[in-house]
Amino acid sequence: MGPEPQTGALIDWLLATDREVLLPILYADNDLGWGIAPGAADLVPGRLGLSEPPTDLGSDAIATADLVICPAVAVARDGVRLGRGGGSYDRALGRIRPGTPVWAAVYDAEIVDALPSDAHDHPVDAALTPTRLIPLQRSGDD
């Protein structure tokens, strides 16, 4: 598993356009809390050396999001997302409001024709690559 696509420029742009951005905080049980992005210079070291916001709003804060961009190892054209295996985003995506769009941040080469899925997997609506946004046909959508 290689590095994830960088999202710093997108976060900076969103902050510059007065959008509120929530960033994940990794808990010891691999669940995710959320904090408001203060700007890259104000992030603090978190678990596993990850940079995190200094204030934790809790795991349910993701329910306030209008859009969720999550990491993925790969994403299929039918919206199946393959994570890193810890279940962090599967749990977090279970807390979003119905209808909230979910985009998977991947590289173009990580978009594949098909992936296996389980009942707990939350489909994604689009693949966000460093160069484009690709709408996906979510499983079960007509």
From TrEMBL:
Catalytic class of the enzyme: ligase
A GO molecular function held by the record? metal ion binding
Q: Which domain of life is it from?
A: Bacteria
Which GO terms are recorded in the biological process aspect for this UniProt protein?
Answer: folic acid-containing compound biosynthetic process; tetrahydrofolate interconversion
Does the keyword Nucleotide-binding belong to this entry? yes
Which residues constitute the signal peptide according to the record? none
Any transmembrane segments, and where? none
- State its cofactor: Mg(2+)
Q: Which reaction does it catalyse?
A: (6S)-5-formyl-5,6,7,8-tetrahydrofolate + ATP = (6R)-5,10-methenyltetrahydrofolate + ADP + phosphate
Q: Which residues does the annotation say bind ATP?
A: R81, L82, G83, R84, G85, G86, G87, S88, Y89
What InterPro entries is this protein classified in? Answer: FTHF_cligase (IPR002698), FTHF_cligase-like_sf (IPR024185), NagB/RpiA_transferase-like (IPR037171)
The alphabetical list of record keywords is: ATP-binding, Ligase, Magnesium, Metal-binding, Nucleotide-binding
Task: Report residues binding substrate.
Answer: E4
Q: What is its EC number?
A: 6.3.3.2
Keyword hit for Magnesium: yes
UniProt similarity note? Belongs to the 5-formyltetrahydrofolate cyclo-ligase family.
Write the protein's name: 5-formyltetrahydrofolate cyclo-ligase
Organism the protein comes from: Kribbella jiaozuonensis
